[in-house]
Amino acid sequence: MENVKIVVQGKVQGVGFRYHTKTLADQIGILGTVENQSDGSVLIHASSNKEDLQTFVSQLKNKKPSFAVIDDVTVTTENDLPNYNSFKIVYP
């Protein structure tokens, strides 16, 4: 199981991006969370095998909601994520 932190920047708040991310995660079998950040970005913590994580990131970039505009996606390895048992949207 690999753990990553994904930061998506652009017009990704108020356009259904978190719901879309959860839908993709559930389809692929990704565990973790997605939440809006105060700087306008979206933060995703994701856990799965390497191949599924690569598919997830690729689909986040290429199958976005119609009103979303992605300027940058940063993926970093995380070592100390909790053991997730599902994928959840975190609300402030």
TrEMBL record:
Species lineage: Bacteria, Bacillati, Bacillota, Bacilli, Lactobacillales
UniProt-listed SUPFAM superfamilies: Acylphosphatase/BLUF domain-like (SSF54975)
Protein species of origin: Jeotgalibaca dankookensis
Reactions the enzyme catalyzes: an acyl phosphate + H2O = a carboxylate + phosphate + H(+)
Acylphosphatase-like domain sequence ranges: 3-91
Family statement drawn from the similarity comment of this UniProt entry: Belongs to the acylphosphatase family.
This enzyme's EC code(s): 3.6.1.7
Keyword annotations of the record: Hydrolase
Protein name, UniProt field: acylphosphatase
Catalytic center residues: 18, 36
Pfam family, one: Acylphosphatase
